[in-house]
Amino acid sequence: MTATATVAKSAAGTRFLGARELLGLTQTELGFRLGVHYTTVARWETSEAGPSLMAQWAMVGLLLASDLKPAAARRFADRIGQRLVVEN
User: What are the structural domains, with CATH classification, of the chain?
Assistant: First the structure.
């Protein structure tokens, strides 16, 4: 694995951990909502594996559906290199 791939997985894991904590969910609860096993969430957060783009967009959806401001979802989307337009 290249150094760039390792850094990308690490950054994605940090983003998922932060977003999960912001949502107040356990790894099990987040895994259920994303349709993955909690061990998959744990691997993402410890950078053992990188989440798919689909999983990252699902996280954006969870942030949008939460009581949080759309800005949190926008920041998460920006960090995965995508533009998200949300009407306030």
Answer: 3-79 (1.10.260.40)
Tokens of 47: 């950078």
Inform me whether the pLDDT recorded for 39 exceeds 90.
Answer: yes
Whether the Cβ atoms of residue 84 and residue 74 lie closer than 8 Å to each other: yes
Higher pLDDT, 85 or 24: 24
Q: Would you say 49 and 43 are in contact if contact means Cβ atoms under 8 Å apart?
A: yes
- pLDDT for 1 equals 52
28 contact partners, CB below 8 Å, separation of at least 6: 38
- The predicted model scores a pTM of 0.72
C-alpha distances in angstroms, 3 versus 55, 65, 68, 78, 88?
A: 23, 35, 34, 22, 39
